[in-house]
Amino acid sequence: MATGVNLRGDMKAIIKDLGVIEKRIQPKAASQSLNRVATKIRTQGIRRIASETGVAQKFIRRIYDNMGNVRKKNRITISGATVSRLSAWIFFRTRSIPAILLDAKQNKKGVKTKAKTYPGAFINNAMGGGKQVFKRKGKSRYPIEAKKIPIEKRGRVIFFELTKKSGPIFRKEFDRNMKRLLAKVRA
């Protein structure tokens, strides 16, 4: 005894179900892709800022006080995308890095750090209790200024450039996530 199966009707239902599944999977794949691209941008940005300024990556990732203690965990944070909110934000806290954190050593000529040399500078106690690299503004005793490594302008430019170039990376990640999620549903 043979039984008949209506393939057209079944195929229409399968195609309809597949369309519903893809519509459910697309926002998830997009949010995952956005978050992965934002993480890649953050990593590339930190590496570029570190190479251009000569500062170690750990000082760019975290915010330190004058005594070398971590004040805030992350200088560069990501507000990730969700299925309902398909946008990821990268926040860059633009605060200069105190020169004392870069293994500053005082010598006869001034202060030398890993990134830079400050002729005529000296290391002394700061008002907050830690040490700081200072340089006089004139010949008199005061005023003096604390030496810091500025990263805000270059950091903004770097992150803006990386964000502009993120389109093809997002497309690649999105395709990869769609394939992975569809394979998961089919299995």
Can you describe what's shown?
The protein is α+β, with helices and mostly antiparallel strands. The protein has 2 domains: 11-95 and 151-187, no CATH class; 97-149, no CATH class. Helix content is 45%, strand content 20%. The protein has helices at residues 7-53, 57-61, 152-164, 167-186, and strands spanning 63-64, 70-72, 76-79, 89-92, 97-98, 105-106, 110-112, 117-119, 122-125, 131-136, 144-146, 148-149. The chain has a 3-stranded antiparallel beta sheet, with no helix packed on it. The protein has a 3-stranded antiparallel beta sheet with strand order 9-10-11, with no helix packed on it. It starts with 6 loop residues before the first helix and ends with a helix.
Largest sheet report? 3 strands, antiparallel
Low-confidence stretches: 1-9
Assess the beta-strand content as a share of residues. 15-25%
Cross-sheet strand order for the largest sheet: 6-7-8
General form = rod-shaped
Helix content: 40-55%
Distance between the termini: 32 Å
Structural class of the secondary elements?
Answer: alpha+beta
Number of helices: 4
Radius of gyration equals 27 Å
What number of structural domains do the residues give? 2
Number of beta-strand segments: 12
Order of helix and strand elements from N to C terminus = HHEEEEEEEEEEEEHH
How confident is the prediction overall: mean pLDDT?
A: 82
